[in-house]
Design a protein that fits this description.
L-2-Hydroxyisocaproate Dehydrogenase, Chain A, domain 2; alpha/beta; single chain; about 45% helix; 6-stranded parallel beta sheet; 2 domains; binds 1,4-dihydronicotinamide adenine dinucleotide
Amino acid sequence: STTPVNVTVTGAAGQIGYALLFRIASGQLLGPDTPVKLRLLEIPQGVKAAVGIAMELDDCAFGLLAGIDIFDNPTDGFDGANVALLVGARPRTAGMERSDLLTANGGIFAPQGAAINAGAADDIRVLVVGNPANTNALVAAAHAPDVPAERFSAMTRLDHNRALHQLAKKAGADLSDVRRLTIWGNHSATQYPDIFHAEIAGRPAVEVVADQDWLESDFIPTVAKRGAAIIDARGASSAASAANAAIDHVHSWVNGTPEGDWTSAAIVSDGSYGVPAGLISSFPVTSTGGHWQIVPDLEIDAFSRDRIDASVAELIDERDAVSKLGLL
Ligand code: NAI
């Protein structure tokens, strides 16, 4: 269709925003036939930098970019939005307690959820990138009672992509031969990257790798702590890879996942795999027709069960904490 899709990006002037906006405008989010109108949402202090980014977007002369608007309030920022990428968040700073962090982010994601409820398009799809992503998504969804909960998701695709690379490298395989990896739980160090259902060129990944020690002492911690390793090396948190994962997530959601494979996304639980219904937790997911489905009926052994449960326990904790703060 030639009607532009309205894409709202919050935190547009941040480092992920800078890595994300040019790819959206070039057609990598929604495909080469879909024009986009960008709606950049920043806090007032971020507006000037967003204006500069808009100038650069103009200077790219992207044929698909049908317009750019800049806002400093969520009501206008989400008006008419079809896709919303919630990137801006309050980072944890030294000495900040977890409840302070959750309160500060509740102050961002509750009003954003309400603004989405009030003004977004009927087909709105929301991806929360800003941390703590799962719980921020839960708070936003709770303030958007008229939007189906399945339209809110949080990003574990970066973790998924990190795991794909680590597994392919270990196996000496092409990335395109690795399928059916899963990230379970929270986008945090408790996440569980699961290779027990994964395949490498059609063979069970655990048989190809045949190295339980690597799995436990290398793969799982490397994937789960990769964010910290990037900060250590780069002096700044993952930005281009996070933007890339956000593109992948929305692309999969809108255009579907390939036959015979799945991906990972944090979506609202229906109670599958012992994850309490209503939590936003990462699952193995497929997408068809613009809707995520949790991959059903996977066997979960005791090793995986313990790790899924530990990450889900952290999500329950975060949910209880925001609930106590009156944010749900
Ligand atoms: P950044 O600090 O460079 O940029 C954040 C931007 O958000 C700033 O420009 C700020 O002004 C803006 N902002 C803050 N509050 C806002 C609000 N209420 N409305 C609109 N804009 C607002 O941060 P960066 O590196 O771009 O990261 C953004 C978030 O993404 C962080 O929370 C980070 O932890 C998270 N992240 C998540 C990943 C994931 O895999 N889920 C991976 C990497 C980062």
